[in-house]
Design brief:
The complex is a heterodimer of chains A (180) and B (191). By secondary structure, chain A is an alpha+beta fold. Chain A is built from 7 helices and 5 strands. Chain A has a 5-stranded mixed beta sheet with strand order 1-3-2-4-5. In chain A, β2, α1 and β3 form a beta-alpha-beta unit. Helices cover 31% and strands 21% of the residues of chain B. Chain B has helices spanning 2-13, 79-92, 105-115, 130-134, 173-190; strands at residues 44-48, 51-54, 63-67, 96-101, 121-123, 138-139, 144-145, 147-152, 158-164. In chain B, the strands form 3 sheets. Chain B has a 5-stranded mixed beta sheet. In chain B, strands 1-2 form a two-stranded antiparallel ribbon. Chain B has a two-stranded antiparallel ribbon with strand order 6-7. Classes of the chains: A alpha+beta (180), B alpha/beta (191). At the A-B interface, α1, α6 and α7 of A face α1 and α2 of B.
Chain lengths: 180, 191
């Protein structure tokens, strides 16, 4: 079973209780339709587990298959440099079929962030190293497609529908409960 | 590790949306693939509708041979798509990757164009599955290649091999570990 090789750290985008017993990591691609389907499922899973779960999103753009995946990830990372990662992340998935510079600039504008700065950042690929680092960390951890989830460091190989994710996390919680 | 085992069992029993080949039977004895140390059988296969490629042509550099069941997997980011993305990392070790399935050369061509795949996809088409059989990577019941990986060194010897459950895309981490090990070994022997 594949194990997450890059531990959750300060470079990560983390949502939820930092001390939660469950850490759910997703490797995702903003242009991947399957990730688009997973997006509301993750929201529902986060709601279901509340303070018992923290969620981490890492970039895994399949750039050869999805020409906008890297620029979307770089846009999210740029928003992160303004501490607005999650708003941009949500907006990218919610507008997944319209990815491209006009959308990125419109989203920056909607978040009242400087559009020109975003243009320059994308043109110069300033955030590409972080995106590529996420990608390679994923490859070394056995990410084998998008989306790939890790629950407390172990790759979740079953379906990522709500019922399967909840069942897998419940089992993990049960184990954590027995261990303590 | 009770949880991990239950999780694994569940993964094998449930329909999977994150992996491929869900319709293939899983209740069968696993193939015996060529182990490390074995000489990699040479082959010459169609790589485009009018060109052949042989393993021996790539002698002198590491080669990754990835057998897979079929083109046109329904999920994004299938096994070949991952190798396509990771290929620059493979190239850092001087390695080339070859995908092999029983699909015909025209099928591979359409698949490669559709998915923008930049490495060779070979057709083990006639006699069907002959090369896969010589590597122990053929599924007789379904008539397709196993999902099996081989890393072959510059002298044509298998240094690492891995048979993945047919429904689980093995990713690229095992390949990168093997290439890293190969580089270290060669560094030591050259010193």
């Amino acid at each position: 079973m594949a194990i997450l090789k890059v531990p959750v750290g300060p470079d990560d985008h983390i949502q939820g209780n930092p001390k939660a017993p469950i850490t759910l990591v997703e490797y995702g691609d903003y242009e991947c339709p399957a990730c688009g389907l997973a997006y509301p499922i993750v929201k529902a899973v986060q709601k279901h587990f509340g303070r018992n779960l923290r969620f981490i999103f890492r970039y895994f753009p399949l750039a050869q298959a999805h020409p906008n995946a890297e620029s979307a990830a770089e846009t999210a990372e740029w928003a992160a440099s303004h501490r607005r990662f999650w708003e941009m992340h949500d907006a990218l998935y919610e507008n997944q079929t319209m990815l491209g510079l006009p959308l990125y600039l419109a989203l920056a504008n909607a978040l009242q962030l400087p559009e020109v700065e975003l243009s320059v950042a994308l043109e110069n690929r300033i955030f590409h190293p972080k995106v590529r680092a996420d990608f390679m960390g994923g490859v070394r951890s056995g990410v084998n497609g998008t989306p790939t989830f890790f629950i407390n460091g172990r790759r979740h190989d079953a379906s990522y529908d709500f019922a399967h994710l909840v069942a897998a996390i419940d089992m993990e919680l049960e184990q954590a409960g027995t261990a303590s | 590790m009770a949880t991990a085992k239950r999780g694994q069992q569940q993964a094998m029993n449930q329909p999977q949306t994150t992996s491929e080949g869900g319709s293939y039977s899983r209740m069968r004895a696993p193939s015996k693939i060529l182990p490390p140390g074995a000489e990699a059988p040479d082959f010459r296969l169609r790589v485009t509708p009018d060109q052949d490629l042989s393993l021996s042509e790539l002698r002198g550099r590491p080669v990754i041979v990835a057998f897979y069941p079929a083109d046109w997997s329904p999920v994004c980011g299938d096994q070949m798509a991952i190798y396509n993305e990771v290929r620059p990392e493979f190239q850092k070790y001087g390695a080339e990757v070859l995908g092999i399935s029983v699909d015909g050369a025209w099928c591979h061509k359409a698949f490669a164009e559709h998915r923008n795949i930049r490495f060779p996809l070979l057709s083990d088409f006639e006699p069907k599955g002959e090369v896969a059989k010589s590597y122990g990577a053929y599924r007789y019941t379904e008539g397709v290649c196993e999902r099996a990986l081989f890393v072959i060194d510059k002298d044509g010897v298998v240094v690492w091999s891995y048979l993945s459950p047919i429904a689980v895309n093995p990713g690229a981490d095992g390949i990168l570990d093997a290439l890293e090990g190969l580089q270290q070994k060669e560094g030591v022997s050259a010193a």
